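User: Hello! My lab partner asked me to get a predicted holo structure for this protein. The small molecule is zinc ion, SMILES included with the sequence. Please write out the structure tokens.
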Amino acid sequence: MPELPEVETVVRQLDALIAGRTINQARLLRAKLSPDCSSKRFSSLLQNSSITGITRRGKFILVDLSRGRTLLVHLRMSGRFMLLDEEAAEPKFTHAVFHLDDETKLVFQDQRHFGLMKIVTSGDLSNLKELSKLAPEPFSDEFSPDYLRFCLQRSRRSLKETLLDQTRVCGLGNIYASEAMFVARADPRMSADSLSAIKTKRLHSAIRDVLTETVELGKTIAIDRDNIGGNIYGNGSEQIWRVYGRQGEPCSKCGRPIRRIVQAGRSTFYCAYCQR
Ligand SMILES: [Zn+2]
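Assistant: Hello! Below are the structure tokens for the protein in complex with zinc ion.
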């Protein structure tokens, strides 16, 4: 599942490819992708809209349109965009198609069927239930060490579970939560409210550092129109992760094996020696 840095890369590439274009016609091929709106209404709301820019809030992609509308997109497990020539065949699992004014079409493909789209009035974005409860963006001033401490001190769940709660910390998923806790040398199993002030400060920097690392990596990859924002890790896939997916491999700091545990149904990778 894409996390914040991967979504950021999709956003940047989409913006480079389609900002300024006009949607001549939009087709919704899977009704559940946009449950609030019929396919007929989906088409009529988007027809002849120009795309003014692509931004992001949390893991939501915001396609800003003319006439004061925004198309909200969540990729969830497997949603992805591809930009094809108008006459190209649409691949299996194509759930929405946006025909653009330059003989291309933007295709939304979603093998696992969890993706979400919503057409909203741009002025109402901050009140939208999907966005209104989201914690501050990790790169914003509002997300300060004090803010993080405030949040953690009010949670008795494990540190790992608390970091995944998007209403407290926005943008961390399973990968970067494990990575940030490793960098901060914080035990994922401990109760969030027992993390010391010093470790909280370290965790705050670690969260920004691990996210920045991948955001920057995303800037270096060439755009693949068939898989926009994909292939972020190139051929050395996942090699940048320190603990994630490395169960049994030696810890880069102490050489002891990385452990994998399951917390709230999801894997956590950590070094029991370095993180305590
Ligand atoms: Zn270690």
